[in-house]
Amino acid sequence: MERKVLSLLCLFFINVSAQRPGGDYPSFFNIGGVLSNNDSETHFSLVIAHLNFDQTYVPRGVTYYDKTIRIDKNPIKTALDVCKHLISRRVYAVVVSHEPTGDLSPAAVSYTNGFYQIPIIGISSRDAAFSDKNIHVSFLRTVPPFYHQADVWLEMLSHFGYTKVIVIHSSDTDGRAILGRFQTTSQTNYDDIDVRATVESIIEFEPKLETFTENLMEMKTAQSRVYLLYASTEDSYVIFRDAAQNNMTETGHIWIVTEQALQANNTPIGVLGLKLNNSNSENEHIKDAIYVLASAIKEMITHNETITEAPKDCDDTGAVWESGKKMFNYLKTRHIKGETGHVAFDSNGDRIYAAYEVINVQQPMLSSTRKNVKVGSFFYDEEKGRMRLKINDTMLVWPGNTEKKPEGIMIPTHLKVLTIEEKPFVYVRKLLDDEIDCEDDEIACPHFNSTDGNEKDYCCKGYCIDLLKALAQRINFTYDLALSPDGQFGHYQLKNHTTGIGTSVKKEWNGLIGELVAERADLIVAPLTINPERAEFIEFSKPFKYQGITILEKKPSRSSTLVSFLQPFSNTLWILVMVSVHVVALVLYLLDRFSPFGRFKLTTNDGTEEDALNLSSAIWFAWGVLLNSGIGEGTPRSFSARVLGMVWAGFAMIIVASYTANLAAFLVLERPKTKLSGINDARLRNTMENLTCATVKGSAVDMYFRRQVELSNMYRTMEANNYDTAEQAIQDVKDGKLMAFIWDSSRLEYEAAKDCELVTAGELFGRSGYGIGLQKGSPWTDAVTLAILDFHESGFMESLDKEWIFHGNIQQCEQFEKTPNTLGLKNMAGVFILVGAGIVGGIGLIIIEVIYKKHQIKKQKKLEIARHAADKWRGTIEKRKTLRASLAMQRQYNVGLNSVSKSISQAVDKNRNPKLNPLSRAPERAWPGDHEIARNRRNNDQTYKPPPRYMPTYATDVSHLVV
């Protein structure tokens, strides 16, 4: 007591003589203390007294005073004491301890001071509730909360190499907080999949346990044998009691527990636990709290922060103390080296960089008591600026009192295997109603539909099924095979989750990956592409097949139309040839027509000469030369026309030879090429091009396009065309509905080998491999990988390629590509149609000719009849004229008729007798001049005139001839 008075007097004289630096802040600060005993109160006063002499933390003109009260187990009394004895004295901060038998006393202090934003520094409270700044708005503590032990758990798991654990925790705030801390820190701070711990199972229990046997039975069915326990000392006693009764504290099991569980008096041998350094050293924490507070106030003064007077009355519901809020923010940024180690805080005001001891429960030889032995420490490394774990493995004793580290996992021998239909890797056939079992080369693979709950029986075979059989035989496990419930490989999808607060949207895996992540399957044996997105959540074996991404398209069909025989020449050339034929024919006709030597005698017996070449003959000649047909008649006769004919023959020879050569090239040797050159083809990159391409939704190829920024435009175009399954897309490529299907090269090469009309375009891109999918931390990972590597070396994988992927068809397609095409009806149909058209045209023309000829004959007959009638009429008229002339002449020459009657009678008789007088016969022709003799005479003598048929000399009396 005398020492305390002496210290206060010294402080008084120092403050009187000291010069106060500039700034708007008080010259003295009252620091309150709510402590648990007299020793803590005395120590609190001494620390503040010594602080005033430490110029490192106290500026000139500033003095600290202590105001302490005793904490009470009654929180209401504690709150009243804070108002009466601390706030009324204008305390700027309060250091609070923990009541040994009560849990709510620090909360009462926090609520009371927090209402006025007066900072509170706890030195013993470790409950997770004080981390909630919505309730304890100004609470800071120099001890870490219990759930921070999860950080040490993760370091220990990484050290021992355990990647799959079971978390056992109470259902209170601290138990759930430690689970959340464990999972969050594992995902953010441990990126390496080899050291990341995954929670296989979570066992949550209500505090105040009576039995834990039922939960232990559930833990036995899990693979993991590493148990992380957070429980109170009383609950830990029950858990360890029941675990021992079920032999779960013996060899092969690992227990890692927190401080409270380590204090149970039945903690098994080999348990690893934690102990916070200086957890019971209240005096050290008091000093660290006061110095942290002094450091924050000095920092505020250095930055010229305004510090107003603290609240002084709980009855005054005045405004919030803004200086208290600023002071709390400065407190959270403190980093000092104190009595309890490196003191720093996180955003919640919780102590970080707290040091722990790793404790191992051991039983010394020749002793029946158990002993807690320190085997390691978790401490702050000044050089690296982070926490480090150091454990002496040689000192460890594991459950079962053994020194050999357990595997930490129970390896199951019967696995649930999932696959998916993807030819040729997995062929799926539905089991018929009359079938009971699958065939010898098949395995039963039922499909359970998670949507409607129905199960259907299928049989599977293929590349992956043979690989699964070989793996099971090599590494000795049994299995049940099933198909993917939703028929998907697996991709992220958004799902709505209903909680007590409301509905939240969360991304989850579906398909095969979702089943593996949810631990509803142990193995995926399928053409599962290895990619970073999937490898973050599951493990892959080494690839059993290396492949990439390629493009499947249908070979361009040859232009074998009805006019295929016209392909060797362009349309322009054909038109020019047609025009040339008729132009040459016209020129030949003109040359032969106007040539002076166009006509000449032929050495024929009849002495006739041939006419010049007419136009129709010239056209016939030009076509005959061009088509290489025999020319019998109608050839040019003049020298100039013959020269042109020779030139035309040469032209025809060149044209025909060129046509023949090109026809062979177009119809026989032509091989269609792929439409696309690969992924870098401009038509794929150009979104305006009318070219449809697609892949499978949610597949590894779809993920690849999402990752590639340079393919973003192309992906936006193809995203709307993507298919649910590869089978649908391949069928649409065959049908011509889809121009390009982008998929795994193994599958597309198989389709191209099976159907020679399909072809893969360009080189492979996005190279990857197919791997076996396993759960995180699966004990089968190494065994499966070693078996696959051995299969590659032994040639087993190559034999699977030949049997299932190529089928020998690729050699047939290659041979088909190397041999020339055989011309068929499809190629030459146009020629046959041309001949048919010629035949039909000829028949049509002959019918027209026959009809025309009949019409001409009928018309000629009518003309002959008309001509005959006209001839008869003319003869009658001529006869009448002749008779009239004869009568007239008879009257004129009637003299002497009687004397010569005899001679006249004779003449008349002679006229009546045709034999005696040929002229008395009726005329055979209507025109006597048409007689051949008369025509010949007319030609010889143009002046000849036939004598009149009736001469008056011969008959004087012709009355008997008048009609």
How many helices? 28
Could you say what the CATH architecture of the domain at 28-143 and 282-344 is? 3-Layer(aba) Sandwich
**DSSP summary, beta strand count:** 31
Q: Which outline best applies?
A: elongated
Largest sheet: 8 strands, mixed
**Whole-angstrom Rg:** 60 Å
Overall pLDDT, averaged? 80
Would you tell me which CATH topology of the domain at 28-143 and 282-344 applies? Rossmann fold
Q: What share of residues is helical?
A: 40-55%
List the main descriptive attributes of the protein structure presented here:
8-stranded mixed β-sheet, 5-stranded parallel β-sheet, single chain, disordered C terminus, D-Maltodextrin-Binding Protein, domain 2, Rossmann fold, alpha/beta, 28 helices, 963 residues
Secondary-structure blueprint of this entry?
Elements: H1 2-17, E1 28-35, H2 38-51, E2 63-70, H3 75-86, E3 91-96, H4 105-115, E4 120-122, E5 139-141, H5 149-160, E6 164-170, H6 173-189, E7 198-205, H7 213-220, E8 226-230, H8 233-245, E9 254-257, H9 259-262, E10 272-276, H10 282-302, H11 322-332, E11 335-338, E12 341-345, E13 351-352, E14 356-362, E15 371-381, E16 386-391, E17 414-419, E18 427-430, E19 443-444, E20 447-448, E21 455-456, E22 458-461, H12 463-475, E23 478-483, E24 492-498, E25 503-509, H13 511-517, E26 523-529, H14 532-535, E27 539-540, E28 545-554, H15 571-594, H16 615-626, H17 639-667, H18 682-685, E29 693-694, H19 700-707, H20 712-719, H21 726-735, E30 740-744, H22 745-754, E31 758-774, H23 781-794, H24 796-806, H25 809-818, H26 825-892, H27 901-912, H28 932-940
Helix pairs in contact: 2-10, 3-4, 5-6, 10-11, 15-16, 15-17, 22-25
